[in-house]
Write a structure and sequence with these properties.
The chain is an alpha/beta fold and 352 residues long. The protein is built from twelve helices and 15 strands. Helices cover 36% and strands 24% of the residues.
Length: 352
């Protein structure tokens, strides 16, 4: 008789598709994992595929079909440009493979819905790579809210900045083109903070956005901000910048205290009536590995991931609401972008 406990511990064999720098980050994060094993890789560049396979000790597939047919392969990790996610996810689901796709789930809501439908029809797990919410610092912020340590939160501020936009090359980088990255930096990096605030604050109701192209040579918006109104009544401000020093930070303002998490400086709290930010201990964790191992565990157990298709499409819809708001100079409701009726709203919000 088969030992069920052994089945729940078996490593899941995965193949990675799209071999940019992020695929190497994912591969390195799970290299010594007992729950997931990288077995094959594919890129349109044969040289890149061969080099990746040699470094990570996996099979170099000559085509997508070959990778999907690789013996014992159960799942794929998709790290291609955003616009290619749908075609590959549909092919993988059609082959019976579970799907992990890096954020955003797709560039468009239509493509996102097709991915969700394909995975649901095939009965495979769909997980989307919004990894930052799994960082121990973000988890601790959630605990501060849940345990009423900082009181009722009235405002959340989040910023994500990088200097990648200054180095984009038209002939080399797909991120150079607006058609490949609508919403610019808000789509590429700001969406992480959108997901983080939904995780911390709950469902979003309204969005107001502003965007500009100031310093990048690329045809994309390199600075953007989105003002959010949450269902709980609180407001949120998300800022993304693609042409400055790297920073990732999030601050919650509660009636008892303000709490701030910075990816480099850690977690601090400032109690109401005091003038000093005090450090809070956070045990470091590999949040990228955590989301990939959760994906593998969902496959073994047949359970849904924390961030599946429906959660991911809500974060994407906030980006598109901000784009629409910036173009029309008005506040845009999330329901308008998603085309939701009142009875659909609860199932799709993605909040807690």
């Amino acid at each position: 008789m088969k030992d069920a406990s052994q089945d729940l511990r078996r490593p899941i064999s995965v193949g990675v598709i799209g071999l940019g720098w992020w695929s190497a980050v994912l591969a390195d994060s799970i290299k010594d994992s007992t729950g997931i094993r990288l077995s094959a890789a594919f890129s349109r560049s044969r040289d890149k595929t061969a080099a990746f396979a040699q470094r990570h000790h996996c099979h170099a597939a000559a085509s997508l079909d070959e990778l999907l047919a690789f013996p014992q392969l159960e799942a794929v990790l998709i790290t291609t440009p955003n616009g290619a996610h749908r075609e590959i996810a549909e092919a993988a689901a059609g082959a019976g493979k579970h799907v992990f796709v890096e954020k955003p789930i797709a560039n468009t809501l239509d493509d996102s819905r097709h991915i969700i439908t394909a995975c649901a029809k095939a009965g495979v797990v769909l997980s989307v790579g919004h990894s930052y919410r799994r960082h121990a610092g973000l988890r601790r912020l959630r605990e501060l809210i849940d345990n009423d340590v900082i009181g009722r939160v009235s405002l959340a501020e989040a910023v994500f900045s990088k200097d990648h936009g200054l180095a984009l090359n038209e002939g080399r980088d797909w991120r150079f083109r607006r058609s490949e990255m609508p919403g610019g930096c808000l789509m590429q990096i700001g969406i992480h903070q959108i997901d983080n605030l939904i995780y911390l604050m709950g469902p979003v109701q309204e969005i107001s956005g502003m965007m500009a192209r100031l310093a990048t040579p690329a045809d994309i918006d390199d600075v953007a901000t989105a003002l959010l109104r949450f269902g709980c009544g609180a407001l949120g401000v998300i800022t993304a910048d693609y042409v400055t020093a790297n920073r990732f930070a999030l601050t919650l303002y509660g009636t008892k205290a303000a709490a701030q998490f910075d990816l480099h400086d850690g977690l601090t709290i400032r109690w109401r009536g005091t003038a000093v930010w005090q450090p809070l201990m956070v045990t470091p964790n590999d949040y990228v590995r955590a989301e990939i191992e959760e994906f593998a565990d969902c496959i073994r157990r047949g359970t849904p991931p924390e961030v599946g298709g429906h959660e991911a499409i809500v974060a994407l819809a906030v980006v598109h609401a901000a784009i629409r708001s910036a173009a029309t100079k008005r506040v845009v409701s999330l329901d308008e972008v998603l085309g939701r009726s009142d009875d659909q709203r609860g199932a799709d919000d993605g909040g807690t």
